[in-house]
Specification:
Blueprint: H1 10-23, H2 45-54
Amino acid sequence: MQADGQDTNTTQYELMRCFADANGGLTVVGDPDQSIYGWRSAEVENLNKMVKGQLGFVQSFRAKS
């Protein structure tokens, strides 16, 4: 499982791809509205790639208040 998927940089995303490929998928938790690490090269687009199925992503659940 990878938490805070919205705050991954390119290297971390590629590592998650390797894990997903080796294990047939990966559970990722993230919220694009919570991205706060752009200053350290985090790319919210990585979460979007995960949601589009590029890491074996299955379904998105978002808490509602």
